[in-house]
TrEMBL record:
Belongs to the archaeal NMN adenylyltransferase family. It is an enzyme of class 2 (transferase). Coiled coil: none annotated. It comes from the Archaea. Pathway: Cofactor biosynthesis; NAD(+) biosynthesis; NAD(+) from nicotinamide D-ribonucleotide: step 1/1. GO terms for molecular function: ATP binding; nicotinamide-nucleotide adenylyltransferase activity. InterPro entries: Cyt_trans-like, NMN_Atrans_arc, Rossmann-like_a/b/a_fold. This is Nicotinamide-nucleotide adenylyltransferase. GO terms for biological process: NAD+ biosynthetic process.
């Protein structure tokens, strides 16, 4: 029997508890999940502080912590391309075959539905708090970002001094203001 595969693509800047709940939900519905680490080429900016490799570690360890069977997921970093109309083909080139895309991102949903894929919207999990923007803002402001992310994200960010990185990136030179 063919496996039913679903794909979920996110920048995961950083991996947070909302991403993990979405992954749990998808795994209830499909045999295998492909997790795309989007905008893999971006790092060291306020919106995209972490490298693709750092995000792979966060996710890999977070899935291990949750006891997810490694034979049920693929983690694939994917760079952006300049052509939205070609992006779905680019994603297909990088991934095992799949039939369902899970996304709450309007552009992602539009592009995949135009190519004939089944699009499913994951439920919202405490969306205002569980967002990359909220985690990054708390990191800059010295708030409790740790409560929003899995232990694996905390460990990796501590290992690379990630909160110092993001605080340093937030300091603007007078010439930039
Ligand atoms: P993200 O990490 O912000 O979110 C990932 C997904 O999780 C989204 O579908 C979002 O709706 C969902 N989500 C996050 N928190 C949630 C919560 N608490 N509850 C429910 N759902 C939640 O990533 P993103 O920015 O949506 O990632 C899309 C990626 O696709 C980006 O890297 C983007 O650049 C890429 N992309 C590239 C092209 C191109 O290269 N031309 C085109 C379209 C999209």
């Amino acid at each position: 029997m063919n496996k039913v595969r679903g794909i979920f693509i996110g920048r995961m800047q950083p991996v947070h508890n909302g991403h993990m709940q979405i992954i749990d939900k998808i795994l209830e519905e499909v045999d295998e999940i492909i997790i795309g680490i989007g905008s893999a080429q971006l790092s060291h900016s306020l919106k995209n502080p972490f490298t693709a490799g750092e995000r792979v570690v966060m996710l890999n360890q977070a899935l291990a912590e949750r006891g997810v069977d490694p034979s049920r997921y693929y983690i694939i970093p994917m760079q952006d391309i300049n052509f939205n109309a070609l992006w779905v083909s680019h994603v297909k080139m990088l991934t095992p075959p799949f039939s369902i895309i899970y996304s709450g991102n309007q552009l992602v949903k539009q592009l995949f539905s135009e190519e004939g894929f089944e699009v499913r919207q994951p439920p919202l999990y405490d969306r205002l708090r569980l967002s990359g923007t909220e985690v990054r803002t708390r990191m800059i402001e010295g708030g409790n970002w740790e409560e929003l992310v899995p232990n694996a994200t905390i460990n990796l960010i501590n290992e690379i001094n990630g909160d110092e990185r993001i605080k340093n990136l937030s300091i603007r030179e007078i010439s930039e203001i």
